[in-house]
Structures are given as structure tokens and as C-alpha cells.
Sequence to fold (433 residues):
Amino acid sequence: MTGTLILLVSATLQSSVLPRVSVFGVHVDLVLVLVMVWSVRRGFDEATVWGLVGGGLVDLYSAGPFGVNVLALGVVAVLAAAAGSALRQARGLVLLAYSPFGTIVYELLALFILQNLGWRFDWPAMVALVVLPAAIVNTVVAPLVYWPLRALDERLQPQTLLG
Amino acid sequence: MFTRLFYLLVVVVVGVTSIMACRLAQAPIAEIGSSWFTGPLQSIIGAPANAFRDVIANVQNIGELRRENQRLRAEIEQLRQENVSLPELQRENARLREQLALRQALPTFRWAEGRVIGYDATNTVRSIIINSGSRDGIAEGMMVISPQGIVGRVVLTSPTTSKILLITDSSSSVNAVVQSSRARGVVNGGAGGELTMRYIAKGEQVRTGDRIVTSGLGGVYPEGLLIGTVIDVRQRDVDMFQEARIEPAVDFARLEVALVVTNHVPAKLD
Fold:
């Protein structure tokens, strides 16, 4: 329940407050960053749940078809868990390296799904004006999110935040 | 007994003598006594007595001063609150005047008003969420306007909210015409939230500052609604068409209220 509440509050902030704070023309994907951090630390089981729940909440606050972010965030979460389990001793560095990669995968996957559902995009412009700036912004924010979630993770071990 | 009578006699004699002396003497003894003795004595004692009297009066006034202080503080607080709400009332007044002007300009339209409560949570889709929905008569596909110009169209509704895809979204297309030259084209949203008018025939006249309005083609938006203003025209010899960058008439970052037109049903062309 606590995890769902964290994701719900983050999704609400991402829709109501964060769009007013624009850096390089994009706003922080707070839910994405949270999912990446928790997935790196907690592994596949929780990554899957966080990715699906987080993606569903983002979809509720988006005009795109429901399921786009469920799929995109779910994939990114699983990949993050894989990276975290491969390098357990250096999860902070893993997150730092994974953040830009995870953001790019997430944004491109979402665009790909939307295009297949009939939406149109100028891909070069999207990559230059949305995908790359979002990767930079999310990478900068990821360490700020990592420390409190790491503290929460260490307090909770081995309990989960969902269910 | 004899002693008491003696003292009584002394008192009477002295008293009568004093009276007779005052009445017969040239100088008024009482006045001389008061000016040389009792007057100064009263002045010496009177000053602190006056001060003491002032202290007493101030202590009695404290309660009254405290009450007046509280009354004045409450009045200041009320005026401060009125001051805070005054700009909001002025803005609301200006907004309602704009809506009135819009109603006079578009008398056949009916709309449901919705306040912007959120934006799209993703960076890839440009939309807003308003606090009016199906129970306010809003349905998917309805166009959304503001007194400044067109905003977009409704893509999803719930009983209490609606999601509106903005015209600045990448997948948005609006059939448009240059107001002055009647050159036709299509206005598309872009990755950075910009508007571009494409497919303008090469011989057509498009200049910076020209107003772009809806053409009515396609049936989604009726003709004549303001989209924006031309800020740049791109034309290359190798291209078949001209392109113009458009500054949207609506400032979407500051949009607070959107109007969903409920009596214009978009035509379905499939």
C-alpha cells in the first residue's frame, strides 16, 4: 500500500505540478525515476509490480491510450532489475548509468506504441527535443530520489512496499 | 473641667481675633498665606499627584486601548484579505468579459466551462485535464476553445473530468487558412509544442504577422476560429510547398479555463 501511495502521489505531482517546471522543454518523469530506482534495488518481482502500477497511474493522467505506459514502464522496470541484479555491489552507479538508458528506452517505446496506434510523430524532432532532454533531466534527478528510497529499502528489508 | 474650659476659651479668642484682624487689616492674610505657603506646598505635592492621576487614568484606559487595538487589527486583516482577493476578482472580471465578447462573436455556440486541473503526465503527449465531464454535457470529439483561440479537442471523458488533446500535440492537425490572403494549409503540432502550417501552395501570399484561422474543412472545427499568428515563413526552391511557423493564439502554459463547445458535433468522415 505504501508503494502504491508513493506512486499515486508521484503521478499526481507529475501531472499537476511538474509540468509547470520545465527544463530543456521537458519535465521530470518522477514515476519513471522512482520505478527505475526501486527496480535496481529490489529485483524482478517488485520491479514488475512497480512498473505496471506506475505505468497504469501515468496512463490515467495522460491523453494517450491506456496501456502505453503500463507496457513501456514495465519493460524499463524489468531491464532495471536485471541491471541491478548483475551489479549488486554498485547499485548506485548502476542507477546513474541506467537512468539515461532507461529514459531513452521508455520514451522511444512509448512513441513506438503510440505510432502503431495511429499517432504521428516527427521522430528526429522528438528525439532531439523530448527524448534526449528527458534523459538528461531524469539522470540529474535520479540521485536525489535514490538516497531516500535506499534508506526506505534498508529499513524495510525484506518486506515489500506493495501488497 | 476648668482646664477644658480654659482651652476652649483660647480657641474662641484666637478665632474671633483672626476673623476681626482679617476684616480690619489692609493685607488679606488668607491670600498672603496661600501665596507664600500653601500655594507652593500644593504645587510641590500637586505635580506628582497629577502624574499619579495620569497613571491612574492610563491604567483605566488600557482596557479601552486594548479593545481599540484589537478592532483596528481585525480591520487591517480584513483589508489585507480584500487586497489579496482584489486582483483575483479583477482577473475573474476580465475573464468573464472576454467570455461575454466571445459569446457575442459566436452567438450560435454553447459551451461547458472547465477549469484546467492538470497536464499530461508524459512528455510525448500534449494534453490538459479539465474538471468538467460527461455530466456537464461533454463528449469525445468536441472542440475546445478559449476567448483567445482554439485549444484542441476532447479525447476522453469521465463524469467529472475530460482530457483535451491540444493543437500543439504532434498528432494534431487543423485545416487552416491565412485570414488575409485565404491561402490554405494544415496546421500541425510539433515535438516542442510549436505549430507549423504546412502544404501552403508556393504562389500563395503568407507574411509574418498574418493571422491563421480555421478553414472549416474536415468538419472538426468550424471556420473562422483563430489559431495563431505567423512568425516565420520557410520557402525553398526545391520544396513543393511553403511552411510557416505559427505562434499559438492561446498561451497553453497559462491557460486556466477551457470552453468545450457542446452544440457543434464534429463530422465523422469515415
User: Anything to note?
Assistant: Chain A has one domain: 28-151. The mean pLDDT of chain A is 89.
